[in-house]
Write a structure and sequence with these properties.
single chain, about 250 residues, mainly alpha, 10 helices
Length: about 250
């Protein structure tokens, strides 16, 4: 029983600290890009309004109906969102904390099936594997999106993301823990298969967000997530070795 308790404690400590580090990195690297992109959110709606107003007859026919819909939307209000500043940073930290602990439990549990983590160096390698599985592989087909950017239907994206994660995890397992040629070929096929199928794409890629801003955001997310996974794996290996040895 102490063994399982120590595993949970290791995951909690590693996940909490990695989540804190992720929050700090996001505050200085990705959040400014998100705030900049949010200034473009109203431009798509403005362009659509201008296009509809170009046809006066259609606009006059739907004027009353549109007024009623706007009134209903005003009554119901928009969904709650944290205020910029401390409140937004705090809730972002809570999300990263929960995410960090959850991923740490997955990482530690998976590593225990193969003998456990022996030191922070081995933990970093497992963290890099986690980065490949959960960020790099799906990110090649579904890169991170900024506000005001178009996206495909959520359910289809989630299904493709989950399938890509599973395929990448099995592929890495075959590459590192099997020496046969057949296993290597199967691993390569699993890595390529989701991208051969293709990730769900929006109907149109037109967006008011500048392409340069989106490119900077994709790079920033990749770098911060890489730091998160390396930190998560290293901390998990460090705490695992100390707790298991003490036990």
């Amino acid at each position: 029983m102490d063994y399982f308790r120590n595993i949970v404690v290791v995951a909690a400590l590693a996940g909490a600290l990695a989540g804190l580090g992720m929050t700090v990195a996001q505050y200085f690297v990705t959040v400014p890009l998100i705030l900049k992109a949010e200034t473009f959110e109203g431009q798509g709606a403005t362009q659509a309004t201008d296009a509809s107003e170009a046809t006066e007859a259609t606009a006059a026919a739907h004027e009353h109906h549109a007024h009623e819909e706007n009134a209903a939307a005003h009554d119901h209000g928009e969904g709650w969102a944290p205020e910029d500043g401390f409140e937004r940073t705090f809730f972002n930290f809570l999300a990263n904390l929960i995410t960090g602990v959850g991923f740490a439990l997955l990482l530690v549990a998976a590593s225990e099936l193969f003998g456990g983590l022996h030191g922070w160096r081995q933990g970093v390698f497992w963290g890099l594997a986690g980065f490949t599985i959960f960020t790099l592989a799906p990110g090649l087909g579904l890169p991170p999106e900024l506000p005001a950017m178009p996206a495909a239907e959520l359910g289809a994206r989630q299904a493709w993301w989950a399938g890509t994660v599973v395929s990448a995890a099995i592929a890495l397992g075959l590459l590192f823990y099997s020496r046969s040629l057949i296993a290597t070929i199967a691993a390569i096929a699993l890595l390529v298969l989701p991208h051969a199928i293709g990730a769900p794409q929006p109907i149109s890629h037109d967006s008011p967000v500048p392409a340069g801003l989106h490119h900077s955001f994709v790079v920033a997310v990749a770098m911060t997530t890489l730091v998160f996974w390396a930190l998560l794996g290293g901390l998990a290996g460090y705490f695992r070795e100390r707790f298991i040895r003490a036990a």
